[in-house]
TrEMBL record:
GO terms for biological process: carbohydrate metabolic process. The keyword Hydrolase applies. It holds the Pfam family Alpha-amylase. This is Maltodextrin glucosidase.
Amino acid sequence: MNLANEKMFYHIYPLGFCGAPERNDFQSNPTERLYKIIDWIPHMKFLGVNALYLGPIFESFEHGYDTVDYYKVDRRLGNNEMFKGVVRALHDNGIEVVLDGVFNHVGREHFTFKDLQWNGQNSKYKDWFSGVDFSRRSPYNDNFTYNTWDGNYNLVKLNLKNPEVVEYLLNAAKYWIDEFDIDGIRLDAADTLDFDFMRKLSETVKNRKQNFWLMGEVVHGDYSRWIKEGKLDSTTNYECYKGLYSSHNDKNYFEIAHSLKRQFSKGGIYQDIAMYNFADNHDVERVATTIKKKEDLYTLYTMLYIMPGIPSIYYGSEWEIEGKKWNGSDRELRPDLDINYMNSNKSANMVNHISKLSQIRKSSQAIKYGNYEEIFVKQEQFGFKREYNGEMVIAIFNSSENEVNLKEHNIPAGRYIDVLNDNNEVDLYNNREIKLYSNWGRILKRIG
């Protein structure tokens, strides 16, 4: 039993969510924008979430991933004392707090890089960065160049083989635990981090706080490598992120069925891992933009909550808001939202649907911990079984625009209640045919 499967996440990108200025002037007094998170706690509780993943909150120049000070909350959001109050309020309401840990790189305004700019080869921090080369100039016209994250010269890659750098970052992580009582860290760009560093980080934080949770951002590759070699608890599940929307767009459930079987069935490569599952996030276009037909969002979110792993909702997507990248900018993906406006002017249908899914998940050990077994898969219909400790749950999905009477399905004979649809009883002893409404699903819990 992996207790991480109890988690249901809400994901906020604070700088956008709180309406912070696009750039930091490093002179203004701290604002009180962070308190906006407290105003959203009742909404989060209605959605049933019990964990909040917050994007970068520490002092940076621009988007948060260009860290300037690991020990200070970004003045555009507030200050350290304000954030402590936010964490206390979240904890008082049963919501854990997971922060973005940006350990691969820092911003050009970080004091160590400023020292390198000023002192050049005499800087005591010249070995803090990867690939420093004084024989060439950087695109910013520094008298040296350096390695970056993905070619972005405003993100200076740290040398995680340097013990001083490692100690500095580990001390920062300990500070976040000791001062703010956070419950976990999401490792930004974990697919580029040094494995030795991740192991040391894991040992440090778990010795500091029992059940501390480490999740890595990994896009491609065998995710289990980061769990095994890096000693992380989970990684982002980008494979299923893609499968969730494209299986609906292409009317081809075989794609997501293949991924779920490969990952979670008996002998699956992530069978015992609580993967972090999501429909969208701060780096990709909103699922309401990606999906071709909005009706498919209902089966998509149902699948997200019933499949193995940990579900996560990106703020605003519960109202089906759209967001698209424009000219390489992520600003539309990370908007400032007003809770009163959203509740008054947006449809609550999806909000209520997700709330119901949360309650179904919370009340079912089979959904949280059960094994995974595919029952049938067709282009527009798909069914799988979750089973744990004598409890059996069958999830069935129909992406067709037409109502379907399903006759060939391999669902075990028995009596079931449909917990998604008014707890209607379904007798599969005497009648093997199952009616599926268009763009909808059924969650059948066996009772006899």
